[in-house]
Amino acid sequence: MSEMTPKDSASAEPAPAPRKVEKVEPYVRPVRRTVKAARFRRRHFGLVLSFLAVVLIPLSVVGFYLWVIAKDQYISLTGFTVRQEEGGSASALLGGLASLTGASASSDGDILYEFILSQSLVQKIDENVGLREHYSRYWDDDPFFALKPDASIEDLDSYWRRIVSVSYDRSSGLMEMRIEAFTPEKAREIAVEILRLSQNMINDLNEQAREDAMRYARIDLEEAVGRLKVAREALTAFRSGNQLVDPASDIQGRAGVINNLQQQLAEALIELDLLSGTDGADPRQRQAERLITVIRERIANEREQLSSGAGAGDDYPALIAEYEGLIVDREFAEETYRASLAALDVARANASRQSRYLATYIAPTLAQTSEYPRRAVIFGLASLFLVMGWAIMALVYYSIRDRS
Q1: How many whole angstroms from its chain centre is CA 135?
Q2: Which of 10, 158, 194, 217 has its CA at a distance of 20 to 30 angstroms from the CA of residue 20?
Q3: Mean pLDDT: which of 84-98, 239-253, 373-387 is highest?
Q4: Which of 73-87, 116-130, 182-196, 314-328 has the lowest mean pLDDT?
Q5: Measured between alpha carbons, how far is 123 from 115 in angstroms, rounded to an integer?
């Protein structure tokens, strides 16, 4: 038999006994007691009372006022714009001198927009149409939307911004206006009066622009006449002092004399050359030499006078420079005078016609149904704010109550 190795003896040892597994009972969640039915507690009663006092009662008052007490208001809609007459061919030829008569259409629209909302217009409308009488007539029945009878001009101006809404598009210059009144006839009457006063304001702007243009044109013309007079007097004094009408013409005359003398000198030299072959005692040869000498002296004398100057003692280049400066001043004064005359003619032509006018593209309308007050919108906004206010106060109250 073969012998057993230590490894075989170790593997032959008996296996350990298995552990005993304990049995675990399953977890059973304890059954909670049944929640009692909710009951109407005291704090719930206070919450309902607060909702009734903060939301329902004010909404009932607002709804009663809007649908029972508030008077109907009617709208008159009108649309207009300020148009400016385009410049004609005369203005184009004169380089836009007609632009002195006024500003651009956009600035005119800005002026008209501010005029409609101004206190001076409100006062004129009140005097002509009777704003206080119409809008304070319903003060006893509708104090919220009506005007109080003893309203000051400041109160009337503030109320005017409530009943008149103006939308203005600066890019196109179009303007739309909505006027609220308790009767459709009154709303249209106010709109017509606003258009009339606006046209008067535009006419005043035209008149002022025409007066300014004419005044400036006359001032420019007077200055141009004075400048032309001074330039002509300076030119006359130059001619009288130097005894020259035109230095350039005088120089041309002197140059012509020199040219003539040089031609005579050339002829005398040729004659002398012809006589040089004769006897030296020929008197014609001595006469020719004498003539050449005289001509040369005269040419030198003329050139000296041409370069040194005339009787005034100034040289010709300085005289010519001074004369040309005076001529330039006179021509510039004449051009300014002609431009001033043209500007005066343009201003006079523009003064004879309407350069700005109020163009109405929507005539004042006469409403058939009332649009204001917007009862549903006001009631909805009031409901929203009252509910939000009540909810915020309730949350704040319970937050403080839970922390205390």
Answers
A1: 37
A2: 10
A3: 373-387
A4: 314-328
A5: 12
State the average pLDDT for the chain.
Answer: 79
What is the rounded CA–CA span in Å between residue 320 and residue 310?
12
The yes-or-no verdict on residue 41 having pLDDT over 70 is no
Specify the amino acid at residue 288: A
Do 91 and 355 contact (CB within 8 A), yes or no? no
Strand extents, DSSP E, 250-384: 356-362
Torsion angles phi and psi, residue 14, rounded to 5: -70, 145
Distance from C-alpha of 100 to C-alpha of 88, rounded to nearest angstrom: 14
What are the residue boundaries of the structural domains of the chain, listed by start?
Answer: 52-221+353-403, 227-351
pLDDT in tens, 154-204: 999 999 999 999 999 888 889 999 999 999 999 999 999 999 999 998 888
Cβ pair 371, 73 in contact under 8 A: yes
Rounded to whole angstroms, the Cα distance separating 271 from 285 reads 8
Distance CA 292, CA 304 (A): 18
Looking at residue 247, its pLDDT comes to: 66
* Cα separation, 217 vs 224, whole angstroms: 10
